[in-house]
Write a structure and sequence with these properties.
heterodimer; A: 13 helices; B: Rossmann fold; 3-stranded antiparallel β-sheet; 9 strands; globular
Chain lengths: ~300, ~260
């Protein structure tokens, strides 16, 4: 077959040697982790403008537009309050159940949407990936930023709910900032790991809703955390109480409300939160980076 | 003769697409899926398309290479692989610097106005915000979408296909490139825009080290490329001076 009719320079080198001699780099080579991180940093403007664009385009066709950022959490809280607060009355043992419930629902919703959108951040953007060069981690990170912005609106609603329900405004409220930051880091790790898994095994998407529902019931979102102590003991209780989402939700409740029953001492919760955020954030990032060159395959 | 410097080396590259969800009728029942799972057969829903079957080529600095072949012969796939956007299954591709793919398919966001798509596209190509700000009016001007009123502030879903393609080309062509891979870009838009875009490609070519051009227009291949590669079903049928290859290709297509 006529392969390289005019191209061969008859130097007797193999193609690999020829490429090496002239310092060509392999198109599929993985950048080192620090190099990749620098690359990602230089694309920060792209990431933030992509995240903003996502919000605009998702709400662009609705009449109320960005008002939905506030309406969605409000309706969400109303629905859960109707079912679990009024009809099932699961709140026994907590004085102020409405803010308690809303904190759980909103924080859980943050992780839930990030995981859902994160697993599709590669498969849903193949066109973009096959057309342009950019560090692919931009996509799951943009998902987290998008949801963090939605979360800010939800937090404003939450603060209003907490105040209206009669809780005092204290200095401890500032603790919601580190809580949200740690949780975002944790969610970013989940989004990146989910993005790679979702691009390799498309069936994952069908399983996510079930995983998230189990996680929902294991995170004391809809009922007080003290319920676990009533039915569990020993190591199963320890496992349930180390659940990262439970930890983040507990910390948020602790920072916004007085007299909340907690799963453990506050210092332990903070330690667990930092550990989860660092471990999951870093592991997700490394796992995603290792697959960087394969995402175009789809 | 001075030693020629290679910029792209493709060494026996194979590319396989795996397509999910193309199951034939009758094999989509849960029972059929379960049987496949138990018998360990590869699911019929996953089909492999061997798009590039062992392509080897070397491109040198200063060359402009045309890529021709019938629809589905693997031209665009090969360009994506050279650009490093699509991984190869076997073989190797080496490149000098980072080749850029100039396509009209750069997927942008249809719900956003043209202007914001320009900003997003430029940032995605790695420009700094200051650069983007300076270039945005220029890009919109070049695309000519504002010739009939203020379209750049309307969402892209309201554009005609020609307008959208012109805007995408203008965004992609706004950056300088070492190795430039052009995918059918010259075929977009009306005659007036085509003239302008051909001029832009010539300018880009003057700055770039090596140019690959995929096109169905023999005229634009003749105009810009001295070397042409004819790809058919993922295999190189012919590689040589443009005139010779085009003659061979013509005879084949007439059959």
């Amino acid at each position: 077959m006529p392969h390289t009719a005019v191209a061969d320079s008859d130097t007797g080198l193999t193609l690999k040697q020829l490429a090496e001699k002239h310092g060509l780099s392999s198109a599929g080579a993985l950048p080192s982790l620090p190099a990749y991180t620098r690359q990602l940093w230089s694309y920060r403007y792209f990431i933030s403008s992509y995240a903003n664009a996502k919000i605009t385009s998702s709400l662009g066709k609705t009449r109320l537009g960005t008002l939905w950022q506030l309406l969605t959490p409000l309706i969400n809280a109303a629905v859960y309050y109707l079912i679990f607060g009024l009809i099932l009355n699961t709140g026994r043992g907590v004085e102020n159940f409405i803010p308690y419930l809303c904190t759980g629902v909103f924080l859980f919703g943050f992780t839930q949407t990030v995981v859902g959108a994160g697993t599709q951040s590669i498969t849903g953007n193949l066109g973009l990936i096959r057309a342009l060069h950019f560090p692919r981690a931009s996509l799951p990170i943009a998902v987290v930023l998008t949801e963090l912005r939605n979360m800010m609106a939800a937090m404003a609603v939450l603060c209003a709910i907490v105040l209206i329900s009669g809780e005092p405004l204290t200095l401890e409220w500032f603790l919601m900032v580190p809580t949200l930051l740690l949780m975002s880091l944790f969610n970013a790790g989940l989004a990146m790991a989910g993005a790679r898994l979702g691009s390799r095994f498309t069936d994952i998407r069908q399983l996510i809703p079930f995983v998230m529902r189990v996680w929902l019931y294991g995170s004391a979102v809809l009922y007080p955390v003290t319920r676990f102590e009533q039915v569990l003991s020993g190591w199963p209780l320890l496992v349930v109480e180390a659940n990262p989402l439970l930890v983040f939700i507990e910390l948020m409740r602790h920072s916004l409300m007085e007299n909340v029953p907690l799963a453990g001492p506050v210092w332990l919760l903070w330690t667990e939160a930092v550990a989860w955020a660092l471990v999951v954030g870093l592991a997700g990032y490394v796992y995603f980076w290792r697959g960087e060159k394969g995402y175009g395959r789809g | 003769m001075a030693e020629r410097v290679p910029t792209i080396v493709v060494d026996d590259a194979h590319i396989v697409y795996r397509v999910h969800g193309s199951a034939a009728a009758g094999s989509t029942t849960p029972v059929a899926s379960l049987r496949r799972l138990i018998t360990g057969k590869r699911p019929a829903a996953v089909r492999e398309v061997h798009a590039i079957k062992g392509v080897t080529l070397v491109a040198y600095r200063g060359e402009a290479i045309g890529l021709i072949g019938s629809n589905g012969s693997g031209k665009s796939t090969l360009l994506r692989a050279i650009a490093g956007l699509l991984p190869v299954d076997r073989g190797h591709i080496y490149a000098a610097g980072q080749p850029s793919l100039l396509g009209v398919n750069a997927a942008l966001m249809n719900d956003l106005p043209g202007e914001r798509n320009v900003v997003l596209g430029c940032l995605a190509m790695g420009m700094s915000p200051a650069e983007v700000k300076a270039k945005t009016p220029e890009i919109i001007e070049f695309s000519g979408i504002n010739e009939r009123g203020d379209f750049s502030s309307l969402p892209m879903r309201t554009y005609s296909s020609g307008m959208a393609a012109r805007l995408r080309f203008s965004i992609a062509a706004a950056k300088k490139h070492d190795v430039l891979l052009i995918d059918e870009a010259l075929a977009t838009g009306d005659a007036k825009f085509r003239r302008r875009s051909e001029q832009r490609v010539r300018d880009l070519r003057a700055e770039a080290g090596t140019v690959f051009l995929v096109s169905h227009s023999e005229q634009s291949i003749r105009d810009t490329c001295e070397r042409t590669i004819w790809l058919e079903s993922g295999v190189i049928r012919s590689d040589g001076p443009t005139e010779d290859v085009l003659k061979e290709y013509d005879t084949y297509m007439r059959k």
